[in-house]
Fold this protein.
Amino acid sequence: MQKQPPSLIKRILKWTAIGFGAFIVVGILAVASDDSKPPESKENVVAGASQKARPLYNVTSYFGKTVEQLKKELGRPTEESKPTKSDIKSGITGDASFLRSGIELTVSYDPSSHLIKEFTIADTTYSSSDYSHLLAAAGVNEEDLTYTVRINKSLSDDSKTASVTVIPGQRLSAEQKADRQKTIEGGFSSWDGSHKQLEKYIKDNLNDPGSYEHIKTRYWDQDDHLVVSTEYTAKNAYGGRVRGFVKAKCALDGSVIDILEAQ
């Protein structure tokens, strides 16, 4: 076998050593670079998942609180309807609304104790038949037995959901809830949302019933009855158009029980 010259052997050994050293340096740098990234622990992954699932409003944690306590937690309401002396006398609730990411939470509270009785979630950006995102925003589900979830259909389009109401401490069967809501909706016009029997009462007491024009109707569900308010315009005895307002206590089937306020 032919021997290699000593100088050639030295060169081979030198370049082999350099190549091996470079390989070791690259490996060390790669490990250091990988170590510089914080490890994604199991705890961090779980925390991230829980943050994504966190509701905009943790409604069940608000049970038993007053509207003042809720304001400290959620901040100043975007809108509030404080109960008047007349409202307190008739038991009409006060309302306060809060807005986060286009989802509105409206709470109805007792006029005397200010304890919150109902929580209503609505999407201010759009309405659809799917209300699952409203349940998620409130952190509630329809299977929980500690509260009632009421689905409020749009009065102008009953194929769409207007809002979802959560009532603590009550539980109706799905059939009972559907029947109750159907009964309530039957008292309102599907065309303009007016209350049929209250509108009839108003027209019967006008100088010119034919001049009646509906503006807006609202109602408050008081469990065993509704409180309904209607704003309208009509012509007075002199032919001038004036604005009117009537608030009434109504049965769930739509009949008018008592007139609470009239202007």
